[in-house]
Design a protein that fits this description.
Length: about 90
Amino acid sequence: DTLQLRAPPIPDEWLKEGWLVKQGAVKKSWKKRWFVATNRADNFRVLYFEKEALKTDFKKAKGEIQPCGYRVKKLDKEEEKKEFGE
């Protein structure tokens, strides 16, 4: 009998964090959330939390976005007003 050790887990690398506003899935109101963008072995994900203080415990995330395959576009002021109001 031989025992084989498991490889240690690859930790999430924090890429960016900060406050963003997202629209709720059920109630369509806008909510301010603390977002943390991470990368683990090219598996990018964005977790969001109700408060910044919860960011170190990923189990307390309110949700997660897997952005692979998505494109992001920065809106200019006119597009932003048209899309979201003033």
